[in-house]
Model the fold of this input.
Amino acid sequence: MNEQSNIAASTREPVAFNAALAEPFNVLIVGVGGQGVIMVSKVLASLAQAHGFEVKQSEVHGMAKRGGTVFSHVRFGPKVWSPTIAKGEADVLIALEWAEGLRWLPHLRRDTGVFICDTKRIVPPFACRSRRPGAPMRYSTETAEQVSAYVSEAYAIDATRMAEELGNDRAANVVLLGALSTVLEFSLPEWERTVTSFVPKKTIAVNTAAFELGRNWIAEAKTAPPSDMPARSAPTQTNYTPRLEITDAWCKSCEICVKLCPEHCLELDADRIAKLVAPEKCTGCRLCEWLCPDFAIRVHLDAEQPALEAAR
Amino acid sequence: MFREAPHFDVRDYLRKEMMPHFLCPGCGHGMALRALLWALHELKIDRDKLAVVSGIGCAGRLSAYIDANTFHTTHGRPLAYATGLALARPDLHVVVITGDGDCLAIGGNHLIHACRRNLKLTCLMLNNEIYGMTGGQVSPTTSETRLTTTTPHGNTEPNFDACALAIAAGAGFVGREVTRHVPKMKELIKHGLQHPGFAFIEVLSDCTEVYGRKNDMGSSSEMVMRQKSEMRPSAYRDSVDEPFRSTDLPTGVLARNARPEYGAALRAAAAARAAK
Ligand SMILES: Cc1ncc(C[n+]2csc(CCOP(=O)(O)OP(=O)(O)O)c2C)c(N)n1
Ligand code: SF4
Ligand SMILES: [Mg+2]
Done:
């Protein structure tokens, strides 16, 4: 999937609003547990509040600790009644995870909504059909191009990668806040003050840098046509074939590997030496390597050449 | 997505000409050795700056398989040798490998005084509740009712909680782990190696051939599986499982304090005297 840049950029000015904003402004923030969805919504809520708006925020983080879905509705304006955003009424949808972003797209306004999505993919356990690395999964297969047909303005940004490059992947949510800052008309000092007050003191520097990265990335995406965008390659998935190297002379037939392999793919052969009998079931989890008291098993994860590179 | 650095290969740290090692099939000491070598590898400890000192026993034998500076000493005394070595060569990482018999029976005094002094050393005690090497005599950690060659009607002596003993004697760092959790064992040993004082780590290991056989504990794999039982971390304590150890032992980091390190204190006192 090639999605290094803006999907459908616009040269539109930031969404204009002031104290006279007639209808509440709706921002929906989504992601999975541990990514910092709630922090983003708190920053936004306190910013809007400091600006004199009435703010309502509601969130669900039920299975958050297990990597489950987390979302937060933030609505602000002169008067806000409902704490939740109805389908098709979000002005901005911020997604910290790719599939979560797609899941919530129907909530975005078709005509004017802005979609900002991290390209980060976190595959939920139930999307895995097999524990084998590289096995096909039930994870969204939509491409950025397909998504662009559904939205008026959208950005697929490698926020997590950018934060990793800054040395702290936890700052990915602040990269997205930087991106969000270009669509909302709060002043830059207001943004910076609020963001700083919400991050741990030791991480202020990295978060300030993250915020600027996100902000500049959108500015760049708006001016440069997509083809000229610096190519940030999409996260790739490499297929691995686990291979077991067994030193027969060291194996003492204790059978720990045979009995403890979660996939039951080892057996003792006629000479009572451990053998991989079901290589197709091996996931390369290394449990046999770690538990072998005789150091007789070594797991290799041989990378399969991606078809594209092999063709080159 | 699969992003992984080349995985640690334990064979890089072994004296391959000594392999296969002499441990019985399924002996837990092999897993403990892997965890130690893995921890040393991850901390990038230079092998020329590493000294492994061990006593006598199946546990004590492990130093022979490590491709580094190793010192196979006398029964119960590895801490005494290691103390001298660490004082003379503060530039070295000194690691002691010892067994429950080596460390708590004949070497018990050395342990409490090592804890008291808090000299920078890492002591890895492999507790299999038995004198494995000599054929299965009762040890200070043998659980009550267990059969050994010296307790043919079941052990009646109460046993030591080695970690509680080390904490009481003042060790700077104390932790415990089971061999089944190799990566956790590695992490615990890493914490111990980085501690700037005396680090005592107890590994609950299985003597499969002697203790396991005598007490009818099943195959090696069954013994490993049973580790989930009573000696597992408190989080797993409620799950139904067959008990193995007779005491409910917590695992993980059990104590960590900032008592002054003995070697530095001794050198400072010597320097002050020299300056007079
Ligand atoms: C001074 C002395 N006393 C006794 C012995 C006999 N001996 C050798 S190993 C051992 C016990 C080892 O038990 P432990 O330290 O628990 O090691 P394991 O074999 O269980 O790993 C004994 C008593 C000896 N070698 N030296
Ligand atoms: S006697 Fe026990 S401790 Fe010694 S090698 Fe055999 S199983 Fe391991
Ligand atoms: Mg022993």
Summary: The interface with chain A takes residues 1-2, 4, 7, 9-11, 14, 19-21, 23-31, 34, 180, 182-183, 208, 219-222, 224-225 of chain B (CB under 8 Å). Confidence is low (pLDDT under 50) at residues 230-247 of chain B. The pocket of iron/sulfur cluster (ligand 2) is lined by residues B 23-24, 27, 29, 58, 128, 132-133, 207-210 (CB under 6 Å).
